[in-house]
Amino acid sequence: MRNNNREIIRLLAFASYKENRGRNRILIGAVAFVVITLFGVFSLSIGKIEADYLLYLRTSGTSAYTTLERPTDRQIKTIEGLSYIKETGKSVYLGSTDVFTCEVLDKNAYETMQLPAYTDVHGDYPSKENEIMLPIRALKETGIENPKLNMKIPVKLTLDSGETIKKEFRLSGFYTEYVDPSVAPPRGFCSQQFLDSLPVDVEMNSLLLMQQNDTLEDEQIEQKLYDDVPMRDDTQQFFGGNSMSYQSVYDLAGGLDTAFLLTVVILLGAYLLLNNVLQISLNRDIRQYGLLKTLGTTKGQLRRIVYRQVTKTVLWGSGMGVVIGSAVTLLIIPKLLSSMYLHGLGNASTMIAFKPWILIFAVTFGAVVTFLSASMAMRKVIKMSPVEAAKFTEQRTETKEKVKKTTKGGAIAHMAWRNIFRFRRRFCITVLSLVLGITISLCAIVLSKGTDQTNQINYENSDFSIISHMNAMQVENYSDDDVFIKDDFKEKIEDLAGIEEEVVVHGGYGRVFSDEKALAPRIASWGYDKKTSFAFVVQALSDDILKQIKSFAEEEGLTVDVDRVLDGNGFMILHYHNLSRIMTEKSEKTIGMPLNIYNLAGEQTGTLSCSGYLDFTKKGLPKFKTTWNGSGILYLLTSEEGFQKMNLTEQTFGIELNVRPELEPLLKNQLNLLIADYNKTIAPKRKLGEHTADKEMILFNAKSDVMEEAKDYLTSSRIVMGALCTILILMGLVNYVNVTMTGLALRRKEFAVMESIGLTRRQLRKLLLIEGVFYSLVVTVATMIFGSGLLFALKWIMNQRIAYFVFSYPWGWLAVCIAGIFAICISVPLLMYKKTEKESVIERLRYYTD
Known about the structure:
The protein is an alpha+beta fold. The chain contains 29 helices and 21 strands. Helix 2 packs antiparallel against helix 12 and helix 14 crosses helix 27. The chain is elongated and about 110 Å long.
């Protein structure tokens, strides 16, 4: 009669599974928790990254990261062939109206670069000469509240050449965009046919839009493009930017490398959790498998017996993990976010990403690690002879140690200390996994708090900012006698009670001539055909800030002579990344060149020497406030002494105030009233026909208003990051609970033997209590040393990368983790032992011997 080995293997696996119900519950719980952890952590992380990506996309108004001005057809062809460029599109600037700008986009520029940034798109991109597409904001500003397709739109368009065109267009489409109105005007789109009918130099008014690989940062992409693409002239320039995906990851974790490292550590922690529990639990069965080997069971049959049990465990654990993980990630957390709204995104619950592949990955990872751990455990059995396996006790080799005997209780503590180090490999892996879990959760907390947008708002804003609306492009309509923030107004502000810190941004306005050699790199692209004068703005910096700039320049190898500025004999030219690589190299040769300074009336008032060009967008540049700047403004920096030598009328550009927190609401109201009264004295000038009267007014910004605008985003981000950090902390603690419970379940025979030779239950409970304390102390010390070292390393990395990052050691959360460790290490063993007290010593010895 043929043996039915398959049925026997099934029965053996079923009997073993049924016999080890307690152990299997722990294994099922471990698998379920790994699935929950991975699904929750990656869903929350990816969801936040995608939400931030969408916010960046919509608030910037385009998905293009990098641009090239005035591209030639040959350059476009070269760029399209580069392996690190994903997409390109071309935009042609036509001109502007009083409300919006006009552009023409090619198909890829519209569909790939612009359309993803818009919502509520109605109609199509213009295809005929008399068609136009406008955003809702532009239509509202022209008085159209309820736009309809094909309605007539009268447009007065001023071309870039200065020519004015009046034309009636038909509205082919409209959409909603989310660009800050103070940053840029609305963008309207016209057809290629309309462009063909205009006297526009297409090449000179074109802008090539690009998307590079996400791994390339702004400076890297510029460097590569300059190396690979020949420039048409010295002033043509690439403007590099980070991809929005990269920036979103950067905001969350500080970069792709740190995000990858955190992912690896999380997966390692999950692996150790499953591996520890399975290795410990299967060691108990080695004797049983050894007996089966003596009966003739083959290696393959032993594996199938184990894998059948593991399969059932994985299925139950994965099912529980999927259900609980989905409930937490897709129901509970979105419910907490349901009342919040993110501008440009909608309901904040969209921060949670349900990706089937994340769920599949979590289940697959848990299953693979469980089967891999089972396979590794079975290798130990397979390598043993049947006799060795049948006699296996998992005892380490004895070492000769002198044991001191005492009647004062010291032996219990000594036994406890020996017990936790008895299986050193298991001990080291358990401690490593626990320390790793706690450390990664503390790192997540530090990152969450350090990169919180509140820190960015605090870094970029004082409590109150009082700003003059005047700028260098408007000041030519005024004389040297005009002062735009009067001294008596400043005195009223300074007299307010509760001001802790005041920073006055000041300088002046003057004129220079376009033929000055020191200015050549900056104004080369402005197109001056003949000598002419134009206005500039100069800001006086304190010696402290100038010394910080000097240190920064030395560290970065920048070619600027800050010492000359500190001596009062020089100035630096500030720009917002407005120089091409060639012009940057040429700017280094301007150091020492003189510049004649004139007041607004055209009278020469002084001469200073150029000390170099400074890019305000350079990463790591010391922070200082400026007044209005732009691509068409010449902006000089000098010292207090240097400014005095220019002999220009001193202007206050702005006042930055930090105040006592409890008085912030009161001072906000008082400043609002003061500024409103001040602006009322300016408004009557409009009646005299002075169209520039608004430029003399004062703007007022309060940091609390910025916080209020970002409130929903801040709260939703904190909920998401808080949930993520909680999951990671639980991963570390649950890891230890599972390992402890599994280990103690296997020590029941040991406890029975110790009781049989005279150890009282009270002494045994004391032994377990001291073991728990020792375990907790070891983990605490390891966490304080290794974890703190990693946290401070993270601090150093993040401070190098994110200017507004604020490091705060997570003492509170560390205390919670340590308290949790002590509670688990002490309570779990005692609770597990309490369950065995119901059985007699003889019953336990007989059960575990059998």
